[in-house]
Amino acid sequence: MFDTIIFEKPIVCECGHKIESSQTKAFDSVMETYRVGDLVSSTPILSLEKDWTYCEICDAHIEFYIACSYGIYLGVFERYREGKEAIENFGMEQLLKFYVKREKPSKRLFHHTPIGFMKKLVSFYENPKPKKKEIFAIYDFTKETPMEAIKNYLKEDELARAIKSVYNEHSILDISYKIVDEELIEVYNKKIQKHLKRDVLFRLVASKERGESRLSGDNVLTSYQALDEEELLSKVQEWLDEHQIWLNVELT
Questions:
Q1: Can you tell me the mean pLDDT for 218-232?
Q2: Mean pLDDT in residue range 199-217
Q3: What is the pLDDT of residue 164?
Q4: Has residue 178 been placed in a domain?
Q5: Domain membership flag for residue 164
Q6: Which value, in Å, is the radius of gyration of the alpha carbons in the chain?
Q7: Model confidence pLDDT, tens digit, residues 118-172
Q8: Domain ends where: 90, 108, 143?
Q9: 78-130, pLDDT tens digit by residue?
């Protein structure tokens, strides 16, 4: 299997043929199509990977470099130096431009389009006391920079993708847990842990504060009630529903 990447600027073969896309195994290999600005959570934080395609007219072998930064596909470049510069120059301004110019973004951040997410993120940081944080109510972004907030989103996206790839829709997500102390429960799932090479799936933490449940970039489910099995199942189910993962949760 493979994914398809769309070139923002065609690569022109020596025969004159313009190559506008290519198949690649550099990403998740799930038959997805990626355009510049799309999220590719399986990539390292910074990635400049060599790949190749061929000209369908003259069969010429054509090499290029795929550049990604913080899980975002920046494009393909014929020269390594150009790809490296694209990664080094990438920042919040470039990220906003990606989504502003996209008429129909193909990726969604939770129930929001990418442009909607970015607008809410900017509004949140411009207003120190927002009346309603909307999607930010499930995150603890108050001490983070915008880029750190986006990086935390990418961590959650990586976990959501892993669960979707391992489990079929409407099946059972089986979890186990360990009580660390009276304020902390660690949640496990062997299949997901192996897929992500991560020891703990979630951490359920007790809190005396009142408010909405939220999920941090470190996968911490925050409870405002006593920690018990019913509360644990409820919080994990809530996280799955928020991420549009249609699974039921059971304890093993």
A1: 68
A2: 60
A3: 86
A4: yes
A5: yes
A6: 21
A7: 666 666 666 655 554 444 444 444 555 666 666 666 777 788 888 888 888 789 9
A8: 90
A9: 999 999 998 888 876 676 666 555 544 444 333 345 556 666 666 666 665 55
Contact 173, 189 (CB under 8 A): yes
Count of domains observed in the chain: 2
Distance, CA of 153 to CA of 161 (rounded, Å)? 12
Q: Which structural domain, as residue segments, surrounds residue 205?
A: 156-251
Domain assignment present for residue 137? The answer is no
The full length of the chain comes to 252
Residues 123, 115: Cα–Cα separation, whole Å: 12
Q: Of 41, 72, 90, which closes a domain?
A: 90
Residue 162 forms part of a structural domain:
yes
CB atoms within 10 A of CB 205: 15
Residues 6+ apart with CB under 8 A from 229: 177, 251
Sign of CA dihedral 95, 98, 104, 105: negative
pTM of the model: 0.46
Residue type, position 213, single letter = S
